[in-house]
Every structure is written in structure tokens, then in C-alpha cells.
Q: What sequence folds into this?
């Protein structure tokens, strides 16, 4: 586990290492990192891969407002098999730093995502694989239903199913009782068991406790998000502070849009194959709820894969395994 003090100490050397990992030399490859006008505002998009002939993978990050571009150096292996597109949504990452968060809503983010996907399809001449993570699993699902012609496959990770949050509260409370964490027990009992009654701050508190009590998997904050941000060679400390502000802004603005996601995700008919990859130790969105949700879907083909010893943000906790599952599925089904 990386604490903030240790991250500051390691920051110079790790940034040099990750800058090297971000180099792409192949002549057939692509490396584009720029602001694109999407939805009428500049939004940060990176396109990276060793062969432009590979399938295009569009990653829809979670949070809300939690950018995944700082993980680019963690998933360089993916770029051997895919042209990987990372997009910092309205209200997130460098997009927030440059453009703020005007007209921020779930529907607007979906519209932005579709606009970007249409542009990528025109450029590369073929449908994309769209991957949605955590809250992004909802956004990607809405995009896939709205414009199925744009996508050859839908990949979902850290899936928020219809009762994921309610099950998370129960399992987190059980874990707190087993470990005799009286502070966590008290806070969870104060929040109550019905997520429909929570506000954004209460939902975030429950999620933080779930992360804190996840003992058999990498800690989502201190093992994954913190080092990704701190070691990103493109980000200053001021940038990181502003990114944190964007996360808070997005949570406040979007919580009431995405908190009733069970209604949106019950429309489970997709025209493309669906792959779900989930950490077996995920306490934030328990694997049982994710598996039950995927079982309700209607699609040409569905597959559900659990990754042992991984929790929330399974794609970054186990990037090699995730990449292999992703490649096997897309080769067989697209």
C-alpha cells in the first residue's frame, strides 16, 4: 500500500519510469494526446496503440469524475493488441482543468461519448469495442443501447448492478462486525441500509468504508488511484488537486442522475456480445450482484469472468489477466 508521503518520495523516479513506458516506437502505431472538441467543449482524449489496424477499444471511466488516463502506463500491454482510446469525461481530469464542468449531466456525458465514438468510427472505419468501468458501466451500456451500430462488443468491469450498492452495504457491515471496526459499524448504521435514501456524501462515505475494509485485494485508493495520479509524468501537483476537485464536482452534480441506475440497467437487451470482468474480492460492487445482473441480459453472447485476488478497478489491479480475457473474447466474438 502506497501512502501519500511515500508517493511523494518516489514521485521523481516513478515519473521518469512511466514516461519511458509511454513511448510508442512502432511505425504502424498511433500516439495522440490532445484536447478534442466534444459536446461543444475541449475534452482530453488519448489514442495509443502499436498498430492502427488493431481493434479500437474505447474506455469509459468511472468515478464519477475519476479519470483513467493516468493509468495509461499501467496498461501499455493492451496497446499491443488494441488501439486504446482514453477519454476524460466532462467534469474529469484535464477536461475539468481546461473546460470546467458546464451542462454536467449523465445524459450529456452519454451524448459526448456517442459523438466521440462516431468520430473514431469515421477515422478507423469500423465499430469499436466499448468498455465501461464502475459508473462507466452504466454510461457504456446506455451508449451501446442508443447506437448499437457504433460498437462491436460491450465490455463491463466493476459492474454496478441493480442491487450492487445495497449488497455492498450489507457485506461491508458484516466485514466491519467481523473485524470489530466500531467506527465503521457506527457510520454504516447511521447511513442506513436503503441507498435510495442516501445523499451523495453518504454514498461516498459507504464506498470509502468498503474500500477501507477490502483486505484481500489491492486497495483501490492507495494501491491504484494514488500512485497512478502521483506518478503520471504529465500531471503537476496542482493538476492533481484540480482533478480531485473535479471528482467532488462530478459526484455532487451527477449523483441524482446515476443513483437510480437500476432502472436504466434493467433494459438489458444488447445487439452486440457482452463480456463482464469482475474482481472476486470487490466489496464496493459485490461480484454476486454483478453476476446476477449479467444473467438477466439478452445479447448474441454473454460471458462473465471473475478475477481472484482483485477488487474494484480489476482492470488495473490485474491488467495482464484483464487484457488476455479481453483479447480472447473479442477475437472469438467480433
A:
Amino acid at each position: 500500500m502506497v501512502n501519500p508521503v511515500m508517493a511523494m518520495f518516489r514521485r521523481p523516479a516513478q515519473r521518469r519510469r512511466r514516461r519511458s513506458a509511454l513511448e510508442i516506437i512502432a511505425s504502424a502505431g498511433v500516439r495522440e494526446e490532445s484536447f478534442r472538441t466534444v459536446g461543444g467543449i475541449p475534452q482530453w482524449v488519448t489514442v495509443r496503440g502499436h498498430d492502427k489496424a488493431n481493434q479500437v477499444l474505447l474506455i469509459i471511466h468511472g468515478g464519477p469524475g475519476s479519470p483513467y488516463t493516468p493509468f495509461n502506463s499501467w496498461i501499455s500491454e493492451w496497446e499491443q493488441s488494441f488501439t486504446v482510446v482514453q477519454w476524460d469525461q466532462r467534469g474529469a481530469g484535464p477536461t475539468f482543468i481546461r473546460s470546467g464542468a458546464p451542462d454536467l449531466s449523465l445524459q450529456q456525458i452519454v451524448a459526448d461519448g456517442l459523438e466521440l465514438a462516431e468520430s473514431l468510427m469515421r477515422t478507423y472505419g469500423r465499430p469499436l469495442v466499448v468498455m465501461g468501468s464502475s459508473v462507466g458501466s452504466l454510461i457504456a451500456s446506455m451508449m451501446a443501447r442508443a447506437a448499437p451500430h457504433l460498437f462491436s462488443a460491450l465490455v463491463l468491469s466493476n459492474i454496478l448492478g441493480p442491487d450492487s450498492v445495497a449488497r455492498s452495504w450489507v457485506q461491508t457491515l458484516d466485514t466491519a462486525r467481523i473485524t470489530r471496526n466500531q467506527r465503521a459499524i457506527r457510520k454504516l448504521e447511521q447511513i442506513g441500509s436503503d441507498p435510495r435514501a442516501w445523499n451523495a456524501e453518504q454514498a461516498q462515505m459507504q464506498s470509502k468504508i468498503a474500500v477501507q475494509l477490502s483486505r484481500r485485494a489491492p486497495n483501490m485508493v492507495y494501491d491504484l488511484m494514488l500512485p497512478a495520479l502521483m506518478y503520471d509524468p504529465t500531471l503537476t501537483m496542482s493538476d492533481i488537486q484540480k482533478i480531485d476537485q473535479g471528482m467532488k464536482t462530478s459526484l455532487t452534480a451527477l449523483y441524482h442522475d446515476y443513483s437510480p441506475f437500476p432502472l436504466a440497467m434493467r433494459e438489458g437487451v444488447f445487439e452486440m456480445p457482452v463480456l463482464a470482468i469482475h474482481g472476486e474480492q470487490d466489496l464496493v460492487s459485490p461480484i454476486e450482484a454483478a453476476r446476477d445482473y449479467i444473467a438477466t441480459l439478452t445479447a448474441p453472447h454473454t460471458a462473465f469472468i471473475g478475477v481472484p485476488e482483485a477488487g474494484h478497478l480489476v482492470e488495473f489491479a490485474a491488467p495482464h489477466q484483464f487484457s488476455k480475457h479481453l483479447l480472447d473474447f473479442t477475437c472469438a466474438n467480433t
